[in-house]
Structure formats: C-alpha cells, structure tokens
Amino acid sequence: MTDNVKEILQGIGNGMKDAFAGTLKIYSMDSELSAREEKVRKKREEWARLKGRPPPKKEAGETRILFRIIQCCTFNGGVFWCSIAIFNNIVLPLLEKLTYYIVGDSAVQSLVVWSWLGPMLSYTFSALWVIPLFLLSKIVNSLWFQDIGDLAYRKSRGRPQMLGLSTMVADLLFSIVIQAIFLIQAMFVGLIPLSGMATLLSLFHLCLLYSLYAFEYKWFNMGWEVHKRIHYIESNWPYFVGFGLPLAVCTYLPQSQIVSGCVFSMLFPLFIISANEARPPRQLCEKTIRVFHLSVELANKIFHKTMRTPKSATDQSTGTVTTSISLSTS
C-alpha cells in the first residue's frame, strides 16, 4: 500500500516537473529548429549536386514557435480578455454613473432605469462582441495550436509519421467525440453533492483531459491511433494527472467560463511544447484507471449509428474501433 502511494505521488511529481521543464526551452527551440532545417537543406543540396540536378529552391522563412505563442497571448489576453475586463470594470461603471447623473436626484428612479439598462448593455456587448470573438478564437487558436505542435515535433523528432488519410479523418473525428463526452463527464462529476470530493474528481478529469490535449499533437504525429493514446494515459495516469494539474488549476479558478477559456488559450501552447519535450514513463502503472471507458463506449455507440465498419475490430483495453471507419452513404 505504501509503495503504491509512493509510486502515485512520484508519478504526479514527475508529470508536474515535465510540465514546467519544457517551457524553459522556448527561447532555444527556434534556433534549434533552424539548425535542424539548415542541416536538412544542406543534405538535399549535396544529394542534388551528386545527382547532377539543380539545388532545391530555398524555402521562405516559416513562422516560429515563439511568434505563435506571442500571437496566442496577444489575441486571447490582450484583445479578448482585456476587452471584457475594460467593459465590465470601466465602461459599465462609467455608464452607470452617467445614468444617475442624467436621471437626476431620484435614487429610486435611477436604480429602476439602471436595472434594465445595465443588463441590456451587457447582453448587447456579449452578443455583438464576446460571442463572435469567442467563436473566432476557437478557430484561430486551433490553427495556431496545430502550428505550434507541428513545429515543436519537427524540432524534437523531425518528420511526422502521418496516418493514412481515411484513418486520420476517422481517428480525428473519434477523438473529438471522446473528448467532448469526457468533458461533459467531468462536468457531471463536479455536481456530486460532496463539494470537496466533487472538486477533486472534476480536477482529476480535467488533468487527464488537458494532458490528452497537449500530448495528442505529439502522438498524432508519431502515428499513434486514438485507442493507443487513451490506453497509455489510463495506464500512466499519475504522471498525466501531474502534467495537467497546473493548467487545470489555472482554468478552474476563474468564475467566468469565458475568462477560463482565455487563460487556457494563453497557457496551452506552453504545455504543447512541454509535451513534445517530455519523456513519459514507459513502465505502466500497477493500478490502471479506465476513466475514459464510459466516454469511449458512448462514442462507439454514436459512431456505430452514423458510420459502418466493414471489418471492425475492438481493442480489448479500451473498447475502441481499431480498423478503418468509413462514412455511411445511407
């Protein structure tokens, strides 16, 4: 029993250490990536010279990791979050004082006017600014996150080992469905009528989910299918709880879901880099927790109703479909 607790605590500590350690390499990653690409370019030029062919054209300078991180912080923190803070803490109070000044000395009448004017202004601001910008941020962030993940992988491992097109599409769709269901599962767990236990269980789910988010860019480029990614997390859950814990705590503290999303979008690129630099333990944990089992089962049921699997096989460890999934034409 003591050894199991020690193993779990050690795994959590190693995960937290790797989550912070990877971010320390941000400033050196671009130079290392440039050195790797320059080495590859010279090899191509040498090969072309030996074959008597013209040297390959020099590719235009690509966007670097640090630049993408600055973009994420500027857009999500400097534009999105700051605009909400300015409206709530500066614009609304000024408009409230202006309303009291225009209405006059009648405090009751001023309160009545502001009781409908204040919410109307908040709803208008949300409808015309917050919601459109939130939807835009989801699209833009997903592109930037993918770019950061690809650049970090090229720096640490070189060329990605991509899956086949049909397998890649099916794997991506299946992974998105599992993550969406698991997020709902984390929300329901947080409703348990035991406040302390509910908070711990919800954080536990978020830690594993955020770790899956961060490592998925790396594992996807390594050619790992979704059943292997989930099984690996469930089998090494102490490490991945520790890895996702800092991000889970930072996003759990804000009361507003919008602010929580801004915090996530600013910090998540750092965890993508840490995941690419991390070396999770190869030895499986003695106590495997199949926390994704329910989400995988529900995702399988959804896919079986909307897709057909000609020669489907189910992975014994997670219950996921491991063969190709083709869209149904009916």
Automatic annotation (TrEMBL):
Membrane topology: Multi-pass membrane protein
Keyword Lyase: no
Listed transmembrane segments: 65-86, 123-144, 165-188, 194-215, 236-252
Highest rank taxon of the organism: Eukaryota
Matching InterPro entries: CysZ/EI24
Region (Disordered): 309-330
Principal location: membrane
Compartment(s) of residence: Membrane
Alphabetically ordered keywords of this record: Membrane, Transmembrane, Transmembrane helix
Keyword Cell inner membrane: no
UniProt family annotation: Belongs to the EI24 family.
Protein name: Etoposide-induced protein 2.4-like
Natural source organism: Saccoglossus kowalevskii (Acorn worm)
